[in-house]
């Protein structure tokens, strides 16, 4: 069966299920050159406060669909909580989305706000949080250097890859991401280091003789971006109360 184009399928679904929607956007990788055979339709639907709000996974016209049905107030609440954690899938979805409907101008307004907030960047990272991330990465890197179990080494390498990428983004004041989005955020920030970290992990997984050394060098670069390794002398006070 031939599927309709993404925008046509998404517009049909929104029209059928949400005739009173204030706005709707199609977003995600399906609109980009990164689209794959398994890409889904990420659809953000903005409804009135009185309407049901929910997230739902379904299939429509041969497409896997992820529906995000929110009110304007919901949108602002989600963005606030996500931005506080320095990662905001919703801001990125809204900023990059393609408007399907916009009954009262809400879609245009939120899209402009999302683009502005993304450009402004996440809130500053408190020094104790950055130090904690440096300490954790330094400690895990020492574990990798001393590890003699090939299977444990793979798990350590995977952990180091994620933590090193996050540390670089934190130190540079950039938005975080998860999974493929963490990879893309780091590639935008530093494509060279992105490649060296990925190649280092691949070398560890292959069991290459220099795999640990290769990955350790790339993780060391990430640590230098944030002030260098931190272990001896690190101290964190217990929370008050």
How would you describe this protein?
The protein has helices spanning 6-17, 72-84, 89-96, 106-120, 127-146, 150-171, 180-189, 191-206, 211-225, and strands spanning 23-27, 41-47, 54-60, 63-71, 98-102. With 241 residues, it is α+β, with helices and mostly antiparallel strands. The protein has two domains: 6-120, Beta Polymerase, domain 2 (2-Layer Sandwich), CATH 3.30.460.10; 127-225. Strands 3-4-2-1-5 form a five-stranded mixed β-sheet, sandwiched between helices. Helix 5 (127-146) runs antiparallel to helix 9 (211-225), helix 6 (150-171) crosses helix 7 (180-189) and helix 6 packs parallel to helix 9 (211-225).
Helices, by number, come to 9
Q: What's the Cα radius of gyration?
A: 21 Å
Q: In what range is the share of β-strand residues?
A: 5-15%
What is the number of domains? 2
Keywords:
Beta Polymerase, domain 2, 14% strand, 5 strands, alpha+beta, single chain, 5-stranded mixed sheet, 2 domains, 241 residues, 54% helix
